[in-house]
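Re: duplicated header lines in exported structure tokens

Our pipeline writes sequence and tokens for each protein into one text file. With two proteins the header for the second block appears twice in some exports. Here is an export where it did not happen, for reference. First protein block:
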Amino acid sequence: MTRMIAFRVRQWHKWVSLIIGAQAMIWLASGLYMVVMNLDFIHGDHLVRNMSDTISSGYEPRITFSDVLAGHPDANEIVLTNWIGKPFYRIYSPAGAHLVNAETGNEQSPLGEADAISVARYHYARSGDVSAATLLENDAEAPSEIQSRKLPLWKIDFSDAGSTSFYISPDDGSLITRRHTYWRVFDFAWMLHIMDYKERADVNNNLLRIAAGLGLSLSILGLWLLWFSFKRRQGDR
């Protein structure tokens, strides 16, 4: 009876091991890529510049905070900032974000294609040319690589070796994020590693639980089969 159970367990163990073994190889390969790659490189830090530019000390804007507040009485945050080398106000209110010139008071947002390209070029640290500019306005148009970031966004593509894309907010003119080939490979590896093939974010999903549970069960059964084999050999002596 015990031998029959061992036979059945060995057959089940063999076939399920093929599936879990394949996933284990995926875990190892994807984990290796994520460990070997430098995270700052993956985040695209080498692709950007001028991110910490500030207003020069002692600068007095022609348009004051009071002027801005008078024009946007519902504002809950007003920031004087350096926008592509010029003084601008970023204004945030329940109605949305606005970009206002600190010298003329003219509103720059929402950004058109030319302004979005100017922002991308201002922050781009490489020498590639802009190959495309696309305004993403709904989820159907948006690639998964922007994850849960709020639309609309300008997607500015560069013709470089890494297929770099910058995502620019048309509302406040800021660089929201950047993506490149190695990030996309990293994201794919992360998806395989956590077994979340839709959102690529849930590290506590049921599929991962099942795979981990099966892997643990197979290990325990494998130890039992090993013990049974030794016990049987001792009995045959």
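Second protein block, exported in the same file:
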Amino acid sequence: MTGPLSAILGFGLFGVFCLAFTEKILPIPPSHVLLLFLGMTAAPDSSTLAILLAVTTLASFAGCLVWYGVGRRIGFDRADRLIERAGRYVFLRPATYRKLGQAYRRNHVRVSLLAQFIPTVRNYLPIAAGALGLPVLPFAMATLLGATIWNASFLLTGYLLRGSGQDSFTVGLRIIVIVVALETVFMLALRYGPAWRRRIRLALG
């Protein structure tokens, strides 16, 4: 994995931009893995770290706008069919996509922001935003803020691991496991939360 990544990083900031943009289109490697790697290997000082944050955030934001444009172009029904056919290949369950799409209708700014903290969902939920014709400016601002926070957290963690004296691979793996666990909890809450809330209300009378 590090061989191809290192080769692309040989192109400097352009390579970093291409990596972050491509990850937004097809999340291989996942963003948290990529950002940890960049923080550990490509940021020798805080100034370079800040530049990496700006470049990767701009690339992530550009990728979101591409998917938003795709959603606007194909419309809701075709977007739904696209996720139905291709979602399983990128670990995005169609049911999860539809639930979040419904939440978009109620509060698109908050969902646009929160979506940036959920692996895989953060890549493809902009399709729903475009397909629903949500206003581009609030979507863009919320997405940019979320991408900045997400990218900064993993880049900074990788940067701190670089000089910590700890085994970077082991600590990085633990962080990835925690992220996946949190994602799983979110998905379970999204899927079963409404039923649990109804049961609690019934139990309380």
